[in-house]
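Hey, quick one: can you model this chain's 3D structure?
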Amino acid sequence: MAQNTERAGTAQPAPEARAGQVGGTATANRPTLPAPAARGGHTPRTAPAPQEARGGGPAGRKVALVTGAGSGIGRAVALALAAANWTVVLAGRRAEALEETARQVGHTGAEGPAVLPVPTDVTRPEQVDALFAAVRDRFGRLDLLFNNAGAFGPPVPVEELAYEDWRAVVDVNLNGAFLCARAAFRTMKEQDPQGGRIINNGSISAHVPRPHSIAYTATKHAMTGLTKSLSLDGRPYRIACGQIDIGNAATEMTGRMQKGVLQASGRVEAEPVMDAADVARTVVHMAALPLEANVQFATVMATAMPYIGRG
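Sure thing. Here's the predicted structure for all 311 residues.
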């Protein structure tokens, strides 16, 4: 569902879930933890299971929630967090994609990473509330939110962008990010020990735009404001908030960049990409810091992509 890998170029349909499989090697099918009972209009796959240890997941592991976890950067980050011994809650609109991410995580027993897929549309407040209720009911706390879900929208000139397409991008990239951050803030403020970390997925477009990307660029600039406000308002409650701005991570949707995408000059040129696993390692580093330290902003990009000097 996430779309923070700098999409541009040919015309595309209205915003939809991010596609592509990045990071990690699939392992043998093993069972995942069942989802909790329905809340706020959301219908989980199974009945609730007994709550895990109050210190977090199994064996007191820290608990992370990744939105847009069914593909691309979200999947890569979920795999990297699980490899670093986090319990990972997977959120996204496509249940099948979340199940595939869970399958790639692999072992879910007491000695291995635990994973809980919860199909969620982050633009729906009642589904976001149900998602975070599921986390609290199952694990008792939340230590990390990777606020990653996003959409790009059709790459068309401003005068051709339909309001419905503009609104769809704003709903996912900004409203969805706010709804998840608000729910995480409430949980982290009330839990004991108090505190936690939110990492927002920005973009190179939080700094400079691509042609025909007004909705995406506007929402990514807004994400920076969201990050700063959360960072300030979270100080009294040991809630840290940072942002990772990503450029040209290789996912299925950025394959066109290696063939050629529209530049500010009007030319169509190929661009280099990088492995999404490199992004995931950066997120894991940010997440592992003590709450007394914070990476406020980080930029991870393909080294030779046209960002410095763009336009």
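One thing worth noting: The chain is about 30% helix and 15% strand.
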